[in-house]
């Protein structure tokens, strides 16, 4: 997931977040993929070690608790809030891990000016 | 021709890039030197005997999940890709399969060296990664070999070039962390295909940038080992607004 330009509502806010970062089906699919024999082979081929899939399982459980909040009784609010925090912390850790290396090049603020220009030969014609 | 080159063989039973060093102009003879207008691009390939290249390109652009994600990501970054403007099917010297010409913002597809649809998809993915880097960052393709090395590491890592199957077809047998060995080696080969530098200089550049660039998985967010991973990555990219709004 690349850097997005969506609005960020930090976990420090008291306002509840509206929905999980991903549909719960996405967490289930990632957990299943992680546990597959094919992924074990790919991961070992790239990293030389077995993959860790437990976090996807925990995130799936947190997501399902989050999505149950609409029918939650008042006494369940604390449990659902914990699930939200847990899931958000897990996703923020993934984002931090993806950004921890310094960039080799400077990012652009706008695309190259000549990207859409016609080819020099076309311009002459 | 000035840009990143893909020093890949003509198919799964790949040959290696030519043993002697060639400049980019010798590898891509239809590409003009800087300052000269380029030859006809996409249409000239269509009307020559080799009509497979445009047809394979079209199928790749319309169906391949790696490519569809890259096209979406480039559009989001302000570099919408036009098939007729940004791709050119040409005959190339040696075993090079394609390249990205930063001076004209064009991807060159070596129609005489791309033999099947799967190969076309890999080459297009590889070169689109270079184009994506050109779009999102100030990459000094011509003056900074570390920048070139970084983009080549990313392209070898994320395009499927170094999949276990492709390496086995090349008779490169290895399992534990072999992917990283392949990425390093192919990045060096690609640099040597388009830059008049020594192998030691290319190797040093790859070694210096490997850690950050190997872990830069944009726009995929992961290493897409096959089309399933690429589809999941595309799903995540399309979901990014919801994602960043809710963490």
TrEMBL record, chain A:
<feature type="compositionally biased region" description="Basic and acidic residues">
    <location>
        <begin position="1"/>
        <end position="12"/>
    </location>
</feature>
<dbReference type="GO" id="GO:0043083">
    <property type="term" value="C:synaptic cleft"/>
</dbReference>
<comment type="similarity">
    <text>Belongs to the UPF0545 family.</text>
</comment>
<feature type="region of interest" description="Disordered">
    <location>
        <begin position="1"/>
        <end position="22"/>
    </location>
</feature>
<protein>
    <recommendedName>
        <fullName>Synaptic plasticity regulator PANTS</fullName>
    </recommendedName>
</protein>
<dbReference type="InterPro" id="IPR021475">
    <property type="entry name" value="Pants/Emi1-like"/>
</dbReference>
<dbReference type="Pfam" id="PF11326">
    <property type="entry name" value="PANTS-like"/>
</dbReference>
């Amino acid at each position: 997931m690349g850097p997005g330009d969506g609005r960020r509502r930090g976990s420090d806010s008291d306002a509840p977040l509206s929905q999980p970062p991903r549909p719960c089906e996405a967490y289930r699919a990632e957990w299943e993929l992680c546990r597959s024999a094919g992924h074990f082979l790919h991961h070992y081929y790239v990293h030389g070690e077995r993959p860790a899939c437990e976090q996807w399982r925990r995130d799936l459980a947190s997501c399902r608790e989050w999505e149950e909040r609409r029918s939650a009784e008042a006494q369940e609010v604390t449990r659902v809030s914990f699930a939200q925090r847990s899931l958000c912390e897990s996703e923020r850790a993934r984002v931090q891990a993806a950004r921890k290396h310094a960039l080799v090049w400077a990012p652009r603020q706008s695309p190259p000016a000549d990207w859409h220009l016609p080819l020099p030969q076309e311009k002459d014609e | 021709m000035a840009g990143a080159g893909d020093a890949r063989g003509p198919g799964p039973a790949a040959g290696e890039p030519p043993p002697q060093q060639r400049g980019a102009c010798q590898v891509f003879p239809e590409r003009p030197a800087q300052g000269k207008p380029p030859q006809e691009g996409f249409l000239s390939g269509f009307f020559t005997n080799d009509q497979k290249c445009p047809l394979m390109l079209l199928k790749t652009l319309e169906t391949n999940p790696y490519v569809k994600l890259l096209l979406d990501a480039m559009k989001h970054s302000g570099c919408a890709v036009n098939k007729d403007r940004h791709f050119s099917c040409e005959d190339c010297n040696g075993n090079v399969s394609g390249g990205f010409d930063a001076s004209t913002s064009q991807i060159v597809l070596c129609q005489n060296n791309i033999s099947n649809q799967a190969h076309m998809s890999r080459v297009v993915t590889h070169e689109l990664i270079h184009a994506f880097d050109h779009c999102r960052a100030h990459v000094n393709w011509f003056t900074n070999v570390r920048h070139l090395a970084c983009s080549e590491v990313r392209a070898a890592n994320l395009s499927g070039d170094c999949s276990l199957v492709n390496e086995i077809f090349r008779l490169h047998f290895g399992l534990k962390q072999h992917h990283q060995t392949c990425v390093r080696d192919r990045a060096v080969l690609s640099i040597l295909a388009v830059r008049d530098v020594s192998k030691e200089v290319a190797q040093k550049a790859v070694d210096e940038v490997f850690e950050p660039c190997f872990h830069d998985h944009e726009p995929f967010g992961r290493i897409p080992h096959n089309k399933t991973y690429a589809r999941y990555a595309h799903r995540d990219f399309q979901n990014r607004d919801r994602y960043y709004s809710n963490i």
